[in-house]
Glyoxylate/hydroxypyruvate reductase B (bioreactor metagenome), 202 residues
Amino acid sequence: MDKQFRSGNFYVRMGLENTVEVEGKTLGLLGCGRIAKIFAGKCINGLGMKVIGYDPYVTKEQLGGLPIELKDNADEIWKTADFVSIHLPLMPSTEKTVGMEQFKMMKPRAIFLNVARGGLIYEEEMVEALKTGVLFGAGLDVFEPEPLSENSRQMLDMENVVLTPHTAASTEESVINCCTSCATDLVNLCYGRPPVCPANKI
């Protein structure tokens, strides 16, 4: 729509094809850590979405009161959600664990989101799924490799994918907050106080 409007087509607004309402839809989280919970809260309270999640290391008590319905396995997320958002760390056990098999489980108009790590995905299979319609749409901020591989550059011309260059967390304010947080924790350590944001809690 943005591309059409910029080219002078104001009446693109009359076309309803491939438009999706967010309110009342189900967001599925793969990984329910800190970032996923912040995202879930915004989607529940701001957008009126239902949220389901799968994380074998998180209990209901660790969700901070958020009404996230925890599922017993990842397949339930892929099969049930209207939007699937992945929030996993990249490690040997999670590397390239998402591919065509998972995309084929998704609902016909479901959308895949990845702002975690590109290496979690079989990127060539995702490109093929987007090209062939197996995957209805995607929003991607991370890739493997970065910048885009020659094969993945096909996505630059696809209408069913939104791409950003690993910049989802980058704003002027966020950079200032990050630097301030690091400096504050250095001061805390110098005065024998525990850091607010430790990388590892001992």
User: Anything to note?
Assistant: The two ends are 50 Å apart (CA to CA). The chain has two domains: 21-169, 171-202.
